[in-house]
């Protein structure tokens, strides 16, 4: 840790707080729902141009249907740190017309302000500080990936993220902090299943006995599925969406549920997948179709991750910035990178609250602080 540089970096970034705020306002006001290629590509082009102005080697990873991803590289030596940001939000086109970026005291409110456009601003300005202060290490490579589909499972970006992960020594994920400012050193794995029951339709009055009631069968399955929850192991299953039947006077031929799964331990994922695939109908005349799985493995707090966090904590203390660590029940691209055995620090983005909710906000004064922490961490060997 270089104490002298820490203060220089922090001062530089604090003097840029207004510029950081302006950029975040601009990004929040750019629509970018995961399923809207047109708007995602506009934002990607804007960010690519910004990255070029920061002397990065920039590549647009064009996608046929998903929004384009962007890769930026600084330096030519062996891969040091991979930074991850996602450009998509959960907010549909039209949201910013109703609810544009607004500033209320130290809060910047608006769709994606915290998750994770704030993290994009933090990354860009951390790189700017290193460049303008002539601190950018010449002997190593830093890479930033901005992917467009994190909120819907990173299906088109997972491969490039995993390939780049294996070329770097560590991964920093710029997802928002856990309030009031913690890095995430542990995340649950996340999965989703759909269970469909097929029964047999019949007249509820005339032929009740001939029918096979798919809703009754599903009701029994739901009890079983909810019963796979094991708080001791950190495993939860949540039957969250249900549907089925046509009219009350018809024995329902079909019913279905969607199930959210969270696992804390690696070995729980295949266990739950086997339990779900092993579901058997109570009524032999009914049939079940189970699909889905655990898409994101858990991010486990390894000794390497703890060590990395320890360095960040020391830098934060030196800068006089509060920093803590926390675990999260939600998944991110950090789940993929940590599962490859590459130490991953997550939640390094902006401080705020209300992700995916209408009251989402980023704490403005945290922008320079988090960027300073990131910049100093990028200087670590
Ligand atoms: Zn996010």
Give your account of this protein's structure.
The protein is of the alpha+beta class and 381 residues long. Helix content is 35%, strand content 25%. It has helices spanning 3-14, 17-28, 37-52, 95-98, 113-132, 158-165, 214-227, 268-277, 303-319, 334-339, 366-378; strands spanning 57-61, 69-74, 79-86, 102-104, 107-109, 141-147, 170-173, 182-187, 189-198, 202-203, 236-244, 250-251, 254-263, 287-296, 324-328, 344-345, 352-353, 361-363. A hairpin with a 7-residue loop joins β17 and β18. The radius of gyration is 24 Å and the shape is elongated. The chain starts with a helix and ends with a helix. The model has no long low-confidence stretch (mean pLDDT 97). Zinc ion is lined by residues 86, 115-116, 150, 175.
Q: What's the domain count?
A: 2
CATH homologous superfamily classification of the largest domain: Zn peptidases
Which percent band covers the strand fraction?
Answer: 25-35%
| N-to-C order of helices and strands | HHHEEEHEEHEHEEEEHEEEHEHEHEEEH
User: What is the number of E strands?
Assistant: 18
- Whole-number mean pLDDT: 97
Strand count, sense and barrel status of the largest sheet are: 6 strands, mixed
- The percentage helix is 25-40%
Oligomerization state: single chain
Tell me what the CATH architecture of the largest domain is: 3-Layer(aba) Sandwich
Query: What is the CA-atom radius of gyration, in angstroms?
Result: 24 Å
Report the total helices. 11
Low-pLDDT regions: none
Instruction: Tell me, briefly, the overall form.
Output: elongated
- Which structural class do the helices and strands define? alpha+beta
């Amino acid at each position: 840790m270089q104490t002298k540089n820490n203060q220089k970096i922090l001062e530089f970034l604090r003097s840029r707080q207004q510029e950081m705020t302006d950029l975040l306002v601009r990004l929040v006001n750019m629509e970018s729902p995961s399923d809207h290629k047109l708007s995602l590509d506009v934002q990607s082009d804007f960010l690519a141009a910004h990255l070029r102005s920061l002397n990065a080697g920039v590549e647009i990873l064009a996608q046929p249907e998903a929004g384009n991803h962007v890769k930026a590289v600084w330096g030519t030596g062996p891969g040091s740190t991979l930074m991850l940001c996602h450009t998509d939000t959960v907010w549909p086109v039209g949201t910013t017309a109703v609810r544009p970026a607004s500033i209320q005291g130290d809060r910047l409110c608006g769709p994606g302000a915290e998750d994770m456009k704030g993290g994009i601003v933090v990354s860009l300005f951390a790189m700017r500080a290193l460049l303008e202060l002539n601190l950018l290490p010449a002997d190593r490579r830093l890479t930033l990936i901005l992917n467009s589909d994190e909120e819907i499972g990173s299906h088109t970006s997972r491969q490039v993220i995993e390939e780049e992960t294996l070329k770097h020594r560590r991964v920093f994920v710029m997802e928002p902090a856990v309030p009031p400012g913690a890095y995430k050193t542990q995340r649950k794995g996340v999965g989703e299943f759909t269970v469909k029951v097929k029964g047999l339709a019949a007249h509820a009055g005339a032929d009740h006995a001939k029918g096979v009631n798919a809703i009754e069968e599903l009701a029994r399955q739901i009890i079983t599925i909810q019963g796979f929850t094991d708080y001791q192991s950190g495993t939860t299953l949540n039957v969250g969406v249900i549907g089925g039947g046509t009219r009350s006077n018809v024995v329902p031929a079909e019913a279905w549920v969607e199930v959210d799964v969270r696992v804390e331990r690696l070995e729980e994922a295949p266990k739950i997948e086997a339990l779900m695939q092993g579901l058997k109908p109570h009524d032999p005349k009914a049939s079940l179709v189970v699909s889905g799985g655990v898409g994101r493995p858990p991010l486990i707090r390894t000794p390497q991750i703890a060590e990395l966090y320890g360095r960040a904590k020391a830098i934060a203390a030196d800068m006089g910035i509060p920093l803590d660590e926390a675990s999260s029940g939600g998944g991110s691209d950090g789940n993929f990178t940590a599962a490859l055995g590459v130490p991953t620090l997550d939640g390094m983005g902006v401080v705020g609250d209300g992700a995916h909710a209408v009251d989402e906000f980023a704490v403005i004064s945290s922008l320079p602080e988090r960027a300073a922490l990131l910049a100093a961490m990028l200087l670590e060997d």
